[in-house]
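Our consortium's second objective concerns turning raw sequence data into structural hypotheses that experimental partners can test. To show how far this objective has progressed, the report includes one record in full. It was chosen at random from the queue rather than selected for favorable results. The single chain below, 308 residues long, was entered without modification.
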Amino acid sequence: MKTITLVIMAAGIGSRFGGGIKQLTPIDDNGHVIMDYSIHDAIEAGFNKIVFIIRRDIEADFKEIIGNRIEKACDKHGVEVHYCFQDINDIPDEMPEGRTKPWGTGQAVLAADKYINGSFAVINADDYYGKEAFRKLYEWLNKPHKDNEICMAGFVLKNTLSDNGGVTRGLCKLQENSMKLSEIVETQNIIKTADDASSEGISIDPNRYVSMNLWGFPEGTNGSKPEFLNVLATGFEEFFKYDVKENPLKAEYLLPTVIGKLVANGLYTVDVCPTHDKWFGVTYAEDKQSVIDNFRHLLDAGVYGKEL
């Protein structure tokens, strides 16, 4: 059977959430966290391997709160579970003096390299994406593709905004009469307005597609490791030669930026798989109650059972 892996980036600590590990915050009466629902939806769609990217200092808490439970549940379905660690010191050059900031999502995915041996998707641990996105990405990944093709879930902007403050979103521009990505514009401080959305006073179409960091990468030739991982590793070395040299304390190697450059240079194409499910997550501490309410509505509507 073809292996299709879900890689979950769970190494971050949300500074706007009071310094707590927001990925491990229970959001229903049974102690489930957002990741439980993502994993449930992914396995239901057909994914059969899970790789958690965490930090060593949260390993014990992570396994106690979610990891051990997920391992038991996945074992019943024949789904593999692995852990890997994002380490700020795992770099191709010397550590800049005074650097404490993590290197970003691009380095996180590289940490999972040894556990990826075929098609894979990558998600944020603290985001709820809905069932449709996982179904569409699985269908895309289960078909043959060229090495330089990628897919992403395209969410509708208005379905991703917070009631409690501005958010950063990757606004997508599409090729004319196509669902292929032409550009991602990282836009900060997007807020809800009475009629639509805006950033720094500039109106934004609330119906345009945005990236929420749900990407899919096809297996390489004859079922081998995706070629994108080699491109990502080479790019990380170049990132140290140029970006880190210019901004040693704050430069980040971000997955959307890497992919955006590949698309801009005509080296890769990205198929946008549209979904109209509502995204939600805990960006701010005040979002927690809204997330709890949203899951309660999903449970009441029968979208999920009380036991995942």
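The partners drew two points from this record. The domain at 5-278+286-300 is CATH 3.90.550.10 (Spore Coat Polysaccharide Biosynthesis Protein SpsA; Chain A). The chain has a mean pLDDT of 91. Both points have been shared with the crystallography group to help prioritize constructs.
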